[in-house]
């Protein structure tokens, strides 16, 4: 953190337990959340944490989230891009989203890949495509379902930060607008707004795990400067100089850089900027 110029890090653990049995998931997450809380408390000027929960059991996830926020002091919650193959927009998860909205916590979405493609072999071979393409693809699918299935409409106070620049959605969201007029009879019930509006309206946020200044410029153009925050993806070395990466984005003002580097995230997480 010192070497890369990061003052405060928000910690999370990828949810690899969505297929675990209820008792095992409950015990594992209790240990994890308590350990994270203890670690952050030992250096509270450098670390905060996102809670985790067993979303495969929505009632348990709601209890875990409430305990993490009210008793352990967590500022948000992390989720995968799907839950053991089930989309986050499934109505069974509505109680969890309702609790996130009620508590006013930021949801950090980090993908686990598109495992349902594994049997087909479409992502096998060279290129580590299960990660290179699979991770941003899962985020794209998850956000698209949350928009088109009406989840974001149902919970207008919900705030989600999607890892890796939101996957492919911000780069091609205008196609989601166009499908409504191109195939109106096949879309299903329309969302209340154009899909691109959800990207800019205060519900969706995106981190800076992109790979060029031009990619970041385009993300900002699509999402708005107030919807982009610094990301590191540590310990994976996708972006080893996250602050320099933001400083190198073309045509940004100092005020814009300040928003990405900290002030927007501080506001979302209820911290003193």
List keywords for this structure.
273 residues, alpha/beta, seven-stranded parallel sheet, two-stranded antiparallel sheet, 11 helices, 9 strands, 11% strand
Provide structural commentary.
The strands form two sheets. The chain has a seven-stranded parallel beta sheet. Strands 4-5 form a two-stranded antiparallel ribbon. Helix 2 packs parallel to helix 3 (94-103). It starts with 8 loop residues before the first strand and ends in a 5-residue tail after the last helix. The radius of gyration is 18 Å and the shape is globular. With 273 residues, the protein is of the alpha/beta class. The chain has helices at residues 22-42, 58-70, 94-103, 129-132, 134-148, 151-154, 169-182, 195-200, 213-223, 242-247, 254-268, and strands at residues 9-11, 47-51, 76-79, 82-83, 86-87, 106-109, 159-162, 204-207, 228-229.
What's the topology here?
Layout lengths: L8 E3 L10 H21 L4 E5 L6 H13 L5 E4 L2 E2 L2 E2 L6 H10 L2 E4 L19 H4 L1 H15 L2 H4 L4 E4 L6 H14 L12 H6 L3 E4 L5 H11 L4 E2 L12 H6 L6 H15 L5
């Amino acid at each position: 953190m010192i070497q890369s110029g990061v003052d405060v890090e928000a910690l999370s653990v990828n949810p690899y337990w969505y297929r675990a049995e209820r008792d095992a998931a409950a015990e594992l997450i209790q240990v994890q959340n308590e350990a994270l809380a203890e670690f952050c408390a030992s250096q509270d000027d450098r670390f905060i944490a996102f809670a985790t929960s067993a979303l495969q059991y929505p009632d348990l996830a709601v209890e875990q989230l409430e305990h993490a926020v009210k008793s352990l002091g967590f500022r948000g919650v992390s989720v995968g891009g799907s839950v053991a193959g089930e989309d986050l927009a499934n109505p069974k998860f509505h109680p969890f989203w309702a609790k996130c909205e009620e508590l006013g916590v930021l949801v950090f979405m980090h993908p686990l890949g598109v495992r349902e493609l594994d049997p087909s072999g479409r992502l096998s071979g060279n290129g580590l495509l299960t990660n290179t393409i699979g991770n941003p693809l899962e985020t794209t699918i998850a956000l698209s379902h949350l928009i088109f299935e009406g989840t974001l409409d149902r919970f207008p106070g919900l705030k989600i930060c999607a890892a890796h620049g939101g996957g492919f959605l911000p780069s091609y969201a205008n196609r989601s607008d166009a499908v409504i007029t191109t195939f109106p009879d096949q879309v299903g019930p329309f969302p209340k707004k154009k899909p691109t509006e959800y990207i800019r309206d205060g519900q969706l946020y995106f981190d800076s795990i992109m790979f060029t200044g031009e990619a970041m410029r385009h993300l900002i153009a699509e999402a708005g400067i107030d919807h982009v925050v610094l990301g590191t993806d540590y310990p994976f070395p996708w972006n080893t100089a996250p602050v320099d990466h933001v400083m190198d984005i073309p045509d940004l003002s100092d005020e814009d850089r300040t928003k990405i580097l900290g002030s927007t995230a501080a506001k979302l997480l209820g911290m003193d900027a």
